[in-house]
Amino acid sequence: MIIQVKINGIDKEWDVDPGMILLDLLRDKGYKSIKRGCDEGYCGACTILLDGQAAKSCVMLAGQAHKRSITTVEGLGTMDEPHLLQKTFVEHGAVQCGYCIPGMLLSSKALLDENPNPTEDDVKEAIDGNLCRCTGYVKQIEAVLDTASIMRGEN
Fold first, then answer.
1. How far does the chain reach from its first CA to its final CA, in angstroms?
2. Measured between alpha carbons, how far is 106 from 114 in angstroms, rounded to an integer?
3. Cα separation of 128 and 113, whole Å?
4. With 76 labelled, which of 1, 7, 31, 90 sits at a CA distance of 20 to 30 A?
5. Which residue, among 77, 104, 85, has the nearest Cα to 143 in the 3D structure?
6. What is the pLDDT of residue 73?
7. How many domains is the chain built from?
8. How many other CB atoms are found less than 10 A from the CB of residue 92?
9. Across the strands, what pairs with 3?
10. Which residue ranges of the chain lie beneath pLDDT 70?
11. Domain end: 75, 93, 118, which one?
12. Edge-to-edge order in the sheet of strand 47-50
């Protein structure tokens, strides 16, 4: 079956098997920021933005993305021009092994796009589906709140 998607702002058309999982398709196409974790939608390592909302790609068929917009971390920023969230995560020491970070960044971006003035509880709720075994969550929460403050022009 043929699907059409806009991924990181670029229109793509792919021929996919009807039973193919979106996570597998995206990794096959070179989007390596999306990680395989639990395969049950629990850990958040496979998080993408689908039409601006955080979604778990391991529990979606590729066909469900037809005519939709997907954002991966590859579409957030580059090494030379990182997204503000990427900068603040690094500045706050909110990254260690990096396995959960792409999903954490995308869940945080979805939150900030919807709510530019989140509370700590809002951030906790937004990243609740992203498991981190290295840092805990304090530094990620601080980084998201700092990003929001900078985006509002307060820092």
1. 49
2. 12
3. 17
4. 1
5. 85
6. 96
7. 2
8. 19
9. 14
10. none
11. 75
12. 10-15, 2-7, 68-71, 47-50, 53-56
Which residues, including other chains, have CB under 8 Å from residue 66's CB and lie 6 or more apart?
3, 4, 5
The residue written with tokens 């229109």 in the block is 11
Tens digit of each residue's pLDDT (9 = 90 or more) over 106-147: 999 999 999 999 999 999 999 999 999 887 799 999 999 999
Q: Do 108 and 124 touch, CB atoms closer than 8 A?
A: no
Domain end (from 75, 103, 124): 75
Structure tokens at 139: 């530094």
Joined tokens for residue 33: 């920021």
Q: Where are the alpha helices (DSSP H) in 3-83?
A: 22-28
The CA–CA distances, whole Å, from 55 to 1, 37, 80, 132 equal: 22, 14, 27, 17
Q: Give residue 129's domain range.
A: 84-151
Tokens of 88: 């603040």
Residue 141 to residue 77: CA distance in whole angstroms: 20
